[in-house]
Amino acid sequence: MLKLLMVDDEQWVRERFSERIPWSDAGFTFMGAASGAEEAIRMIERDMPHLLLTDITMPNMSGLELAAYVRKRWPRIRIVILTAYGKFEYARQAIELGVDNYLIKLAQTPEQILDACRKVAEEIEQEMDVDQKLEMRRKLEWEKEWTRKRQWTERLVDDDGSIQARTMPEEWFEGVAQASYLAGLTIGWRVPAGPEQAELTEEELVQLQKQVGEVLEERLDSRMLGEGNRMVMLPIRQSRLCLLIGSRQLLESFKMNQLALAALEALRDFAPVKSFIHVGPVRELGKQPLTIKHIADGLREGLDGLAAYFYKSDSAVVGKYAPTFRRFDEEQIREWIAAVVKAMLREDAEAFQESVSVITKLYNPPIHPADLLRMTRQMFHPGFVKLPASVVERLSGIDRLETWTDYCGWWEKMIQAVNEWMNNRIHPSVSMRKEVQLMIRYIREHYKEDVQVAELAKLVQMHPSYAGQMFKQEVGENFSDYLNRVRMEKASELLERTTMKIYEVSGAVGISDYRYFCKLFKSYTGFTPTQYKNKQV
Question: What's the rounded Cα separation, in Å, for the pair 25 and 112?
Answer without folding.
Answer: 12
